[in-house]
Amino acid sequence: MPARSVSAPALADDRAQRLREAGLRRTRALQAVLALFDGAPGWQPTHAQLAERLADEGEPVNAVTLYRLLERLVAAGVLVKRTAADERAWRFHAPGAAPATGPLFECDACHTQFPLAEDDASARAVAAAVRRTLARQGHQAARVDLAVHGTCADCRGGRSHA
Questions:
Q1: Is residue 159 within 8 Å of 112, Cβ to Cβ?
Q2: Name one GO biological process term (predicted).
Q3: Which of 101, 118, 139, 146 has most Cβ atoms within 10 angstroms of its Cβ?
């Protein structure tokens, strides 16, 4: 029997159910925040970037209100928050847009992540070299997260993701 795919309406129904179960009301702020994530798959903004984008869209939200809303969306499983080792700010993303587990390219301008092919021989060679270096130093690597940072084609060309 072929695997059943989850349709967009089913995903929307799941999210609506999560929002109801968490007791979140469908406020303008909530709808504006969700619309931003829906309109920019892979976007992983900070609280400040979200506040700026909401203001640009004509839907300014008080900083504390936005912080509380984001925390509630995370608690409801509608958003995920993470921080990178070199950052102090939390970043938020939709669960389906989770950071790649394999090698990836992250744009330092827009923070969109672009997964690289996991079966790429050169990426595997880099990971193996890192493991060997760590082993020579007496360490045991559990995993190697390979991330290349730079500027994506859209940001270099002045195009917008959202």
A1: no
A2: negative regulation of DNA-templated transcription
A3: 146
Phi and psi (nearest 5°) for 98? -60, 150
Instruction: Show the DSSP H helices in 84-152 as ranges.
Output: 121-136
Binding residues: 107, 110, 152, 155
> What does the block give as tokens for 137?
């130093």
Tokens of 58: 């004509």
pLDDT of residue 10: 45
pTM for the complete prediction? 0.57
CB 54 within 8 A of CB 36: yes
What residues are designated binding site for Zn(2+)?
A: 107, 110, 152, 155
Per-residue pLDDT tens for 43-81?
889 999 999 999 999 999 999 999 999 999 998 888 888
Residue 123 near residue 74 (C-beta atoms within 8 A): no
Question: Within a 13 Å sphere around the CA of 67, how many CA atoms are in the beta-carbon half?
Answer: 6
CATH of 1-97, one of 2.60.120.10, 1.10.10.10, 3.30.540.10, 2.60.40.1930: 1.10.10.10
**Burial call 109-136: b when 16+ CB within 10 Å, e when fewer:** ebbbbeebeeeeeebeeebeeeeeeeee
